[in-house]
Write a structure and sequence with these properties.
The chain is globular and about 85 Å long. The protein has 509 residues and is mainly alpha-helical. It contains 18 helices and no strands. The two termini are 29 Å apart. About 1% of the residues have low confidence. It is a multi-pass membrane protein. This is DHA2 family efflux MFS transporter permease subunit. It is found in: Cell membrane.
Length: 509
């Protein structure tokens, strides 16, 4: 019975996280099917992460109010329904709303499923259960782009959501059968509804401003200014409210601990940079270089091959080594990999593009664990659980905000390079005229020649902007490595090493 419970919990965990990585290579196809700009489809991924982030602080209320079985059953049924709507929807608004429901329902399942394993497993069997749960956590993230690209090119992007439905329904049914009659005593705690409302308004307003920025020209738009002011006011009020609350939604007092502040801030910024450049990499290699979704997935295959091994080694030895040193080395490795990617050019072959990913994969497994270990230093029991929920909100919010921020920065740099390439000086105009003359001699009409040259300029501008983004990311990872060294030495207050490891793994992507 316990083995069946572990397998179904692991399958549900895999399913939720698989929908984060597998969806990225589908974005250009989804944009074409729904008839919208790819920038709008980026919102469906960013808002998926945002609602998942908001689910973590509320999961404990669902657990205590409705119990393990009802909470997981309802969450997976909602996930299945939202997936079905995504699969059949031809309307962008419905698709976006369904992706947000997917994210929230999936986010609810993650901490509750971990709690199920910790409660139902006796100590001799807990190691096996938590090990399988941790493997289910990292596998979909690394394999997601590869399998998602294959599904897109072979069956079509809608099949990701069609496949979600029977799997989510099966998980819900099996969980209901296994956990029926084994519920813990229900409590009816109050939820900090004021804090939740303020958090929803603050984070939602900021995310909406970031999503609209690339389209409405940022601070030249009164709508974006209004959203930013609303978000800032709501988050300031939220901080004051939570600091003085007897039962806060988020334990903001943890920020007084230097390690939690360094670990939490570093986790947020690392997730922001990493998810932003990953989304740019996967989407723009299709739009800019003409790669298929499957080939883009293959470019990321090294992440799946090596990151699992380095993750296992990191989790095994990080408590014997200095977590600050481990995190610093990982960030330095990612910095070098980002600088390497920034040297890409148009003729680069597929095998040349694989090497930087292979190098990055050696450090991916060690990229996030040190932040979680440092932030949770000195915490145990319920304090560690509350700290983990806070860190999850920071990490997933960083992933949500990284997509529009990096996308907007890339678009700005692309426009700047296009300006200098196409309108920079008289010599450039002479070169354009010469190129048009050569193309006309080859039988290409002037209008087609002009469009061909403009498209070539756009392509080169996009490639230059792409390289610059990864150059900026290289410096960002390097600076984050220096910030990590500001933390104090890690102390482990939780005596159960496997429980501590599970809490740290829950904070990772």
């Amino acid at each position: 019975m316990l083995l069946a419970l572990n397998l179904v919990i692991g399958l549900g965990h895999f399913l939720v996280l698989f929908n984060t990585g597998a969806y990225l290579p589908m974005i250009p196809r989804v944009a074409g099917s729904l008839g919208v700009n790819p920038a709008y489809v980026d919102w469906t991924q960013a808002n998926f992460f945002l609602t998942m982030a908001l689910a973590f602080p509320t999961a404990a209320w669902f657990l205590n109010r409705w119990g393990e079985m009802r909470s997981l059953l309802g969450a997976f049924l909602a996930f299945a329904l939202a997936s079905a709507v995504c699969g059949v929807s031809h309307d962008y608004g419905w698709f976006l709303a369904s992706r947000m429901v997917q994210g929230y329902a999936g986010g609810i399942t993650i901490p509750i499923s971990l709690g199920v394993l910790l409660r139902h497993y006796t100590p001799p069997h807990r190691n096996m259960g938590l090990t399988l749960w941790g493997m289910a956590a990292i596998t979909p993230f690394t394999l997601g782009p590869v399998l998602g690209g294959w599904i897109t090119d072979t069956w079509g992007w809608r099949w990701l959501f069609y496949l979600n439905v029977p799997i989510a329904l099966a998980v819900a049914l099996i969980i209901a059968i296994i956990l029926a009659g084994r519920e813990m005593e229900h409590r009816h705690p109050g939820l900090d509804w004021v804090g939740l409302l303020l958090l929803l308004i603050g984070v939602g307003a900021f995310q909406s401003a970031l999503n609209l920025g690339e389209i409405d020209d940022w601070l030249r738009s009164t709508t974006i200014i209004g959203l930013l002011l609303t978000g800032a006011a709501a988050l300031i009020y939220f901080a004051v409210w939570e600091w003085n609350s007897a039962h806060p939604l988020l334990e903001l007092r943890f920020l007084r601990r230097r390690n939690f502040l360094v670990g939490g801030l570093g986790l947020f910024l690392t997730a922001l940079c990493f998810q932003g450049v990953m989304a740019l990499y996967i989407v723009q290699f299709q739009l800019m270089l003409g790669y298929s979704a499957w080939l883009v997935g293959l470019l990321l295959l090294p992440l799946a091959v090596f990151s699992k091994l380095t993750s296992m080694l990191t989790h095994r030895y990080i408590h014997r080594l200095d977590a600050r040193f481990v995190g610093f080395i990982a960030l330095i490795g990612f910095s070098i990999g980002s600088f390497w990617v920034s040297s890409y050019n148009r003729p680069a072959s597929l095998d040349e593009l694989l090497w930087p990913q292979a190098m990055a994969s050696l450090f991916l497994g060690a990229l996030f664990p040190p932040f979680a270990t440092i932030a949770l230093s000195g915490l145990r029991g319920t304090a560690e659980m509350r700290g983990g929920a806070f860190l999850n909100l920071l990490r997933v919010s960083g992933q949500a905000m990284g997509i529009p921020i990096v996308g907007a920065l890339w678009d700005r740099r692309r426009i700047l390079h296009r300006h200098f390439l196409g309108e920079g000086n008289a010599m450039t105009r002479e070169q354009l005229g010469s190129a048009q003359h050569i193309l006309q001699r080859q039988g290409i009409v002037p209008e087609a020649a002009h469009h061909l040259i403009i498209n070539r300029i756009d392509h080169q501008a996009a490639l230059l902007a792409f390289n610059e983004i990864f150059h900026f990311a290289g410096w960002a990872f390097l600076l984050l490595g220096v910030v990590l060294l500001l933390a104090k030495h890690v102390t482990f207050a939780e005596p159960d090493a496997r429980t501590r490891l599970a809490m740290e793994e829950m904070v990772e992507p």
